[in-house]
Amino acid sequence: MLDQIRGLHHVTSMAKEARQNNAFFTGNLGLRRVKKTVNFDAPDVYHLYYGNEVGTPGTVMTYFPFPNIARRHPGTGEVGTTVFSVPQGTLGYWQNRFESEGVDGLSLDESFGEKRLSFAGPDGDAFALVETADDPREPWTRSDVPADEAIRGFHSVSLRLKDGGATEELLGFMGYQPVDTSGNVKRLAIPGGNGADFVDIETMPGGNRAGLGAGSVHHVAFAVENRAKQLEVRKSLMDTGYQVTPVIDRDYFWAIYFRTPGGVLFEVATNEPGFDRDEDTAHLGEALKLPTQHEHLRKSLEEHLQPITD
């Protein structure tokens, strides 16, 4: 069993419209845009990152906005809901805020003994806020969301699968332990994690296969401290029979990818070097930062990409 993984690192999804996406995460959710760059494999598409002040692993939601993409079809083989942690007693604030701002899909319930507010993103993305006691992670404090109510980072992701057995076995190998079950949902947790500690497996044997599109999670990334730990994880996964990519330099972390038995794409990403490697912390996310191999395209990309200035 692996002991290098420290919880979630980031969650990457797809959107249709960059400015709408930016407004939702920096405005409605009060997160900081910590990086404005482009998709390594499709540089005519943004890669936008949102999180706390420095983009601490376990707080960062990222997006590829594809202007011509169709909306997703929910189903199995995908991430169902991405859940953020907020302080206890704050769901009333968030419900009032979302109602006044016209956020869709609002519903209050309780899950695993935690109060939860579900809501939808601009592309029908499935999100929820969960009240968490004593989450020590520092929020972004320069939005209009008061610090006492602000999002702390990820709480969990749920995986919607036809059969969760093989994926549960994989997560167990990755260091996750089962902690609770509610109906068709099993919760697993990483001991001693970074705060973004939970993965829920929602088993839907009769569900149709999900169709990827705007509002879909593209992949879920798990955090390791450094490249040495990442190489240990890669070797162990390959020894177990998984097909894992070589290590890929993503400028702000190093990444490896592999497909899970349930169809969800997993990434293992390093906590190093961080989002301040090419920008001062005070100005994260302001300038368009390009990977070295795409720097020669800057003029054409700046003309093509939808301006995002706020």
UniProtKB/TrEMBL annotation:
Keywords: Dioxygenase, Oxidoreductase. The keyword Oxidoreductase applies. One of its GO terms (molecular function) is dioxygenase activity. InterPro entries: Extradiol_RC_dioxygenase, Glyas_Bleomycin-R_OHBP_Dase, Glyas_Fos-R_dOase_dom, VOC_core. PROSITE patterns: VOC. Residues 7-132, 153-271 form the VOC domain. It comes from the Bacteria. This is Dioxygenase. It comes from Aquibium oceanicum. The lineage of its organism: Bacteria, Pseudomonadati, Pseudomonadota, Alphaproteobacteria, Hyphomicrobiales.
